[in-house]
Amino acid sequence: MSAIQYAGATRFRLRFMLQEFELAPGDTLIGRSDECNITLFDPLISRKHARIQVVGNQAVLEDLGSRNGCRVNDVPIKGPHTLSAGDRIRIGKHEFVFGEFAASQPVKRDRATGSLVFCASCDSPYPDEMGMCPNCGSQQSLDEDTRSGVMNEAGKQVWVIDLLLELFQKAIGAQRSEDAERIMRQTMSALESHLKNGILVDAARLAPVATAVIQLSALQRDGFWVRWAADYHERAGVCIPQSLVEAHARWDNEDPTTAQQ
Prior knowledge:
Strand content: 15-25%
Helix content: 25-40%
Number of helices: 5
C-alpha cells in the first residue's frame, strides 16, 4: 500500500492479524481482486467489496454493493460510515481493527511473519507478532537466538506453521472452536505472508494444513477454510491433496451460495 501522507495530517491504519496497513489519503479498495489495495482470498468476499476513503481527518468505509456486506462492531452498515479508532470492521470472515496515530509516530510496516520467541513463563515458542503467549497468556518472552543460535530466519518462519498447527490440534481436541479458528487465522496470515514474500512451503508441510482445515470446516459446518486452503495450494503451485479436493467438492455441493461473483 502507498505510504504517502499529507504533512502533519492524522494518519489511519488497519490492523489485520499480524499485519498493519497504512491508509493513504484517497481510496483504499478491499476485495478479492488483485486490483484491490488489500486483497483477501475469501469466497464470501466480492471482487471489489468495499473501500475506505481518507479525506483530511476522516476515514469513511463504504460497501460497494457486495453480496455479503460489511459490518462495523457487528452491526451491518448501510451507506457511507465514518470510522472511529478501535472500530472492528468485518468483511467476509476477516476482521480488521481501525486505528489512528500521530503523523510523527513511527509506523510498523507490513512485513513477513515469523519472528519466533519463547514464553518466559511456560517456555512455549510462538510468533513474536502475536504479542503474547497463546498457551498461558504471558507477555514476557525470550528471543530464540539467545537460547540456541541455531535456527536462521527462514527456519523460524516455517517453524511457525508447525507450532500453530500443534496448538490448533490441541484446541480441536478440546472442542474449542473459537480458539481453533483464531489459531487457523494466524496460520493463514503466516502462509499468505510467506507466499507474498517468496518463502516456499513444501507439500509435506502443507499436508497438515489440509487436514486441519477439513477438521475446522466440519466443526463449524462452514466450507470457508477448505476453499481457502485449496485456493492457497493453487497459488503456491503445490498439488492439492485428494482429501482436500474431495472436501472442496462436498462443500461446493452443499453450499453453492459462495460461488465466484
